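Aggregate trends can hide what the representation actually does to any particular protein. The sequence in question and its C-alpha cells are set out directly beneath this paragraph.
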Amino acid sequence: MGAANVKPVDLLASIIRRHTPKDIWRDSPLIGYRMLGNTNRGEIGEEFVRRYLEYNGIKTESGGRTSKTDLLIGSLQFEIKTASLGGNGTFQFNHVRLDRDYDYLLCLGICPQDIVFNIWRKGMVAERKAGNLVRMAEGQGVTFKITKRLDEMSPVRSLPEMIRAVLSERSED
C-alpha cells in the first residue's frame, strides 16, 4: 500500500486504538460522574452519602459549602472525600486536610458499576493508619491525598451499618 492510498486520519485512529487502554467506564451507568468538575464531584458525593443514610433511617445534617464540616451525624462531624476508580484499580482521594475539625474521614469510591466506601477516625488518618498521606503540592503540609485500592474499600450497602456502629461506639465512650 503506497502513501497515496493511506488516509492520515484512519492511520492515526488505528495507532490511537492500539495505544489506548481499555476504558473501564464504557457503558457505565455512572459515566456522568467522570465528566464533572472536582467541586461538583465532591458535592454529589456528599449529597449521596447524606441521602443514602437518611433513606436508611439515619438522621444527618449537611454542612453546606461554607461550613467547615461536610456532614453531621448526631454529634459526629464527617469529612467526605469522593473519587472515581482509575484504570489501575485505585482511587485517589484528594485534599485530605488534618487542620480541619472533623471526627471521621469518609471516602466514597465511585466505580463503573458500583459504589464503595471506607471510614477512619481522624486520629488514624493523622497517624497514617488510613493510608499513606502524600502532599498535594511540593513544600506544603496542609492538603494531602490518600490512594486506596478497590479491595481496601467496602460495598456501600454496608455504610448504614458501619455508621450505626460508629455512633454506638461513640455513645459508649
The chain has five helices and nine strands.
